[in-house]
Amino acid sequence: MKLRQIVAAWAMVFILALPVLAQSRRVSGTVRDAETGQPLAGASVVVRGQKTGAVADADGRFTLTTTQRGPLTVKVSMVGHETQTIAVADSDQPVAVRLQLANNALQDVVVAASRVEESLLLAPVTVEKMDTRTIRETPSATFYEGINNLKGVDMVTSGLTYKQINTRGFASTGNSRFLQLIDGVDNQPAGFGFSVGNMFGLSDLDAESVELVPGAASALYGPAAFNGALLMTSKDPFKYQGLSVQTKVGVNHINDPNTGAALYQDYGIRYAKAFSNRLAVKLVASYMKGLDWFATDYTDVDATTSPEKLGPTNPAYNGLNVYGDEVNRTITGIGKVARTGYLEKDLTDYNVYSLKLNGAVHYHITPKLEAIYSVNYAKGTANYTGSNRFSVNGFSLLQHRIELRGGNFMVRGYTNQEDSHDSFNTRQLGQQINRTWVRDLNGNVVAPNLADQTWFDRYTAAYQGKVQGVSANDNSSARSFADQGRLLPGSAEYEQQKARLESVQGLAGAGILSQTKMYHADAQYNFTSALKSAGLSGTDLLVGGNFRQFSLYTNGTLFDDKGGRILYSEFGAFAQLSKTLLADKLKLTVSGRYDKNQNFAGYFTPRASAVFSPTDRHHFRASFQTGYRNPTPSDQFIKLNVGPITILGGAPSNSAGMNVYENSFNSTSLGGFINGFMTDAPKVGQQQAVLNNKDKLVKSNVPYIAPERVQSFEVGYRTLLTSRLSLDANYYFGAYRNFILNTVVVSPKSPVLSADGRVNPAAAQDILATNYQLFQLYTNAPDRVTAQGATLGLNYTTSGGYNVTGNGTWSAFNLQNADPNNIPAFNTPRFKTNVTVGHRNVAPNVGFNVAWHWQEAFNWVGSFNDLRPGRIQAYSLIDAQVTLKIPTYKTLLKLGASNLTNQYIVQAYGSPAVGGLYYVSLTFDQGMLR
């Protein structure tokens, strides 16, 4: 994105924020706890029927401005307290409000479970929530990392700027089965097909709440919410006004053998102003930079070497975080030999950053009709573990959103525009550098396309004693000779070639190009008020729908789009009906959603739930849910010829005219045919040998790609055991099918079958003459597997004000009779638990919070290690923070640590070991700390 475009977008925010002149009055007062008399900092005060509001400061004081004359009503609310409405006369007399302590945090209001506001106690499915206070007091370095303390959450760290969230199994470092929304906007770069953690998300200063729905949520949120949805909400500029500034400075890499201690910096600023009851504006900016965690696991993972011979002296050595050594040959008389690779730390840049800019204008056309325009621009660098290790270098995401909200409806449109900038594939970079310096036996540097074979020729000649001065039959000596002229990390020539290849996009280099766009529109309408007016009290009806278009562009480096952008679209519509019965003790809800992607058949995803509340303290829930996931853009449209094989996405239009899905053999059947032919040919001749063995070839039956499917059943129980102790438990069972996978086929020049339906001899001859092309096709596995699990959460507040929360999660996977090669890895520990202990005022103006996380060891399987398992050891982490409030200076001073004991922990095989981060932050908040 060009600088002038950023300036223009921000200028629009300022232009739209011109003051609306109106006569106003001020309402002021204090908010305190009814039992203790202590001020309630952060209490929300809103004028009923308007957006005008304020937040109480550290002394419980608030002041708001409104143009409404005469008596008015204000609503005062605070996390953990019962909401109160009070009448205010038309005078300047301050008001004093005292809020009663709520029974428990389970009385929070949530939106995520049903897309409408409802009590957490009555939510039909499992929901987790972080409110404003929880976000502010999280012991983690950022609020996003604090989500890991919620029950049922799996968080995987690929780097300092990239953490991935998953729920209920099938975790990955790039999770396309989980939806992440910010103010209702999907913040995924469409080319990725998944959200890159919080890299393009919310600043800590602007985060108001987080709601998590684990499990299938497609019935309300569409195909991306296959395994769950995370809804993050930013702060409303009408409600949260004033200037906020945060400076966070810390240190990581303590006792790291790879490097010395490094500085961590995170800065943020937020300004919000309501110019009247109608117009409010906010501007938010944050910038973080630091030294990323190093991926330095050099374990030899060569699949064909016997375990006792693995290690640095193995001629076929393939180090996990070493790149270039994947290139190998099996040499007669020597065995398998791999090229010498480069360490990841010499290929990538671990100096990472994250820049986020946001501007928003909120305008009330009427007291109940609000128009919103927002623009978000984020850019940063991250190291991401996928099929390779990628440097997401200078990657940017630009979002524009317009929205109209009424009392019963919402209409919204937004666009996501990504630019990969200087991103590159680290493994490919190592391989390409290795092709720049190889010399032939005469000492001449050869062309890149000849480099690999020439290197192996040098190795062979040296090993066989054909090179003067080099010991024969010695792998070490042969490697040293083959590596003559090798570019050494840090040298001028190495750095020059590295920079050049990073900028070359496509197969000739390591650069990545993606300038994909996504356009989205959605709307919903709540008919509850109309039904109530018609005499149908206790009946709620919500309907909605969306349209989304993708515009893919990689200039032919990934997709077949040199001739122009690839466009495709999808739409969906849903309805939800709920009814309360038995004197409001039973609430029944049914939902249904229909989605249609232009490349696939339409899918209907229903959901049904019941919540039974025999008393105000006990609430039982049960639900049946369905979900599905559309293939990502790469799953559908990748078309990449990498020489011996072409990787081909599974959308029918992507292979139109190629006749691959229709005319090919299973690659696994080639061995039987060739071996049979080789045995028979000397006896009966080649032609008869073909006829004798051709039927050993098996025609492939690979369907075009289709969405994945899941059906899930869940039961749960929420209870307020006492006014200070609550419990929330659930159990779920899910059945999955249609998992997306790859399969390799062989497509001959001739038709696979003859007119009689048997294997065509000409096609068999094509196999022998290598008149064929290998294809790696995206398709679905027919296998069915199941997963189940349970969570238990407890929350207890002592009479002295200490808050203790604990939760545990059990997850289990049943492969049943499925082929393991057809099923994505579960990648989830069986057991994990969290315990948090804190006190908001353990001493005057002093609070603390400590969180402990533990999880069991498990095997991680991912494409980075060719789907071979790597062990993730059991580990426990402690995050802690102490906060000092300084009301006089409107400031919070926080001293904290993530991974307090500085254990270096790997969370996904091939990803870096993550150590401790120790920080101090200073937050000035004009709106809350006066």
Describe the structure in your own words.
Mean pLDDT is 91; it is low at 13-22. Among the domains are: 3-99, Immunoglobulin-like, CATH 2.60.40; 307-348 and 432-503, no CATH class; 635-705 and 742-780, no CATH class. The protein has 930 residues and is mostly beta strands. The strands form eleven sheets. The protein has a 22-stranded antiparallel barrel. It has a five-stranded mixed sheet with strand order 10-15-16-13-14. The chain has a five-stranded mixed sheet with strand order 35-36-41-40-37. It has 13 helices and 52 strands.
* Quaternary assembly: single chain
Mean pLDDT: 91
Shape: globular
Q: How far apart are the termini?
A: 39 Å
Structure annotation, total helices: 13
Main sheet, how many strands, which sense, barrel? 22 strands, antiparallel, barrel
Question: Could you list the spans in which at least 5 consecutive residues all have pLDDT below 50?
Answer: 13-22
Structural class: mainly beta
The fraction of residues in strands falls at 35-45%
Number of E-type strands: 52
DSSP helix fraction: 10-25%
Rg over alpha carbons: 31 Å
TL;DR?
Among the domains are: 3-99, Immunoglobulin-like; 307-348 and 432-503, no CATH class; 635-705 and 742-780, no CATH class. 12% of the residues lie in helices and 44% in strands.
Please tag this protein with its features.
44% strand, mainly beta, 52 strands, five-stranded mixed beta sheet, 22-stranded antiparallel barrel, Immunoglobulin-like, 930 residues, 13 helices
